[in-house]
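Async update (no meeting this week)

Hi team, since we skipped the sync, here's where things stand on the single-chain job. The sequence we agreed to prioritize is pasted below, unchanged from the tracker. I ran it this morning and attached the output directly underneath so nobody has to dig for it. Comments welcome in thread, and please keep replies under the output.
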Amino acid sequence: MTIMNSTSKKTKLALRANNDNPNHHLWNNRGIWWCHFTVHKKNATAERMRFSLKTRSVEQARERRDRIFDDVAKHYDIAA
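Output:
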């Protein structure tokens, strides 16, 4: 899923979710799971977002990632 529209002036969250990969936007750094994605802003800039999920459990990391996506979508007033 990609949420971007070049004609729109709203901030967009770039999410390319591979439904075959439940760990999309996650990576494991020395045993701790992290989440990363990019927010494309209306002023033609982009901001990389990276968050430590502070867990060694992949199941818990997926839950925290999903909550982060929900929070970011609400902050930027977009549907993620």
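Quick observations from my side:
The first strand starts at residue 12 and ends at 14.
Residues 12-75 form one domain.
Reply here if anything looks off.
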